[in-house]
UniProtKB/TrEMBL annotation:
Catalytic activity: prephenate + H(+) = 3-phenylpyruvate + CO2 + H2O; chorismate = prephenate
Pfam annotation, one family: ACT
Origin species: Halomonas ventosae
Identification of the protein by name: Bifunctional chorismate mutase/prephenate dehydratase
EC number: 4.2.1.51, 5.4.99.5
Keywords: Amino-acid biosynthesis, Aromatic amino acid biosynthesis, Cytoplasm, Isomerase, Lyase, Multifunctional enzyme, Phenylalanine biosynthesis
Molecular-function GO term, any one: prephenate dehydratase activity
Annotated GO biological process: chorismate metabolic process; L-phenylalanine biosynthetic process
The UniProt record lists the keyword Zinc-finger: no
Subcellular location(s) per record: Cytoplasm
Length: 363
């Protein structure tokens, strides 16, 4: 047996030395963050400490520079936590999300802001909007669309009466697990709790494996996980956070019918976000009820070569059979060609409301 070229002890010593370097550099970064906070507090009354465009630029740069062996997303997640901890030294970020604890929305909030953010659960989407509008929190996180089930209309409707802006987005891969408690008799499961959307996303799997079990819809997957703790013959469909929060075991993993199942969440706040270099804009447009209205709306996008990524229609609250359009497209409202396109749309529409320009989700 040949001798290894580098001994195990030498490798461990090298790792210890690298850990010392990493510790020193993170501490230096944190000290710089504290200095930034002091300068802002002295020269910018009411300064904004969290800058979505700056954070997106840093994470993109890290992913571009990364040469492995960790993949780029994993490296970016590590830097996200470092940035989150450093930001907490400047000013802790308070974030409201659609609760309760253990939901995918909380997972999205922590993915975007990091574990050092203060996350507060709200009972409904409109409560998230109210908390941000009142200044009780800095930002809110709400779901807006699922790749399987489509848009969340309650979120779209909330924007129609709100002055809040979209400051960012998070796309979360959704994995559902069938969870049971320690006291569950696994061969006797006769009742399954979950949110109605999760039942819809796992319908084929349930039909194949638990066709006789009663499916009981509840307000959230976290609530489903909580209920399972008190019953011996039930299971819950929920994600990793709910499983960890309530101490449940996985009876089956990744039971969603579509492996690409994902949900998009929006970050809402009171600030306009500057250009980051890779941005998206969302707006709501009310058109006059006349022939060719939709063509008039879409034509400037085509002529200015603006890439529209989403178009949704909702009934208007101001008139019978009138509709408003929710539109997402690539680009920032401050870019010249986007500004020119928006000016034309405003001339053709009854009303245009820009919901925000914000960085495309990095993670």
């Amino acid at each position: 047996m040949t001798e290894p070229t580098v001994s195990l002890e030498a490798l461990r010593q090298r790792i210890d030395a690298l850990d010392n370097d990493i510790l020193r550099l993170i501490s230096e970064r944190a000290a710089c963050a504290q200095q930034v906070a002091e300068i802002k507090a002295e020269h910018e009354p009411g300064a904004i400490f969290y800058r979505p465009e700056r954070e997106a630029q840093v994470l993109r740069r890290i992913m571009e520079l990364n040469q492995g062996p960790l993949d780029s997303e994993e490296m970016a997640r590590l830097f996200r936590e470092i940035m989150s901890a450093c930001l907490a030294l400047e000013q802790p970020v308070k974030v409201a999300y659609l609760g309760p604890e253990g939901t995918f929305t909380q997972q999205a909030a922590l993915k975007h802001f990091g574990e050092s953010a203060i996350s507060l659960p709200m009972a409904a989407i409109d409560e998230v909007f109210r908390e941000v509008e009142a200044g009780a929190v800095n930002y809110g996180v709400v779901p807006v669309e699922n790749s399987t089930e489509g848009v969340i209309n309650h979120t779209l409707d909330s924007f129609m009466d709100s002055s809040l802006r979209i400051c960012g987005e998070v796309v979360l891969r959704i994995h559902h697990h069938l969870l049971v408690a320690e006291t569950t008799r696994r061969d006797k499961v006769s009742r399954i709790y979950s949110h109605p959307q999760s039942f819809a996303q796992c319908r084929k799997w349930l039909d194949a494996h638990f066709p006789q079990a009663e499916r009981v819809p509840v307000s959230s997957n976290a609530e489903a996980a909580r209920l399972v703790k008190t019953e011996w013959h039930s299971a819950a469909i929920a994600g990793d956070m709910a499983a960890k929060l309530y101490g449940l075991a996985r009876l089956a993993e990744k039971i969603e019918d579509r492996p690409d199942n994902s949900t998009r969440f929006l970050i809402i706040g009171n600030q306009d976000v500057p250009i980051s270099g890779e941005d998206k804009t969302s707006l709501v447009v009310a058109m006059r009820n006349q022939p060719g209205a939709l063509h008039d709306l879409l034509e400037p996008f085509h002529r200015h070569q603006i890439d529209m990524t989403r178009l949704e229609t909702r009934p208007s609250r101001t008139g019978v059979w009138n509709y408003v359009f929710f539109i997402d497209f690539k680009g920032h409202r401050e870019e010249p060609r986007v500004a020119a396109m928006l000016a034309e749309v405003q001339l053709r529409a009854a009303e245009v409301k820009v919901l925000g320009s914000y960085p495309v989700g990095v993670l």
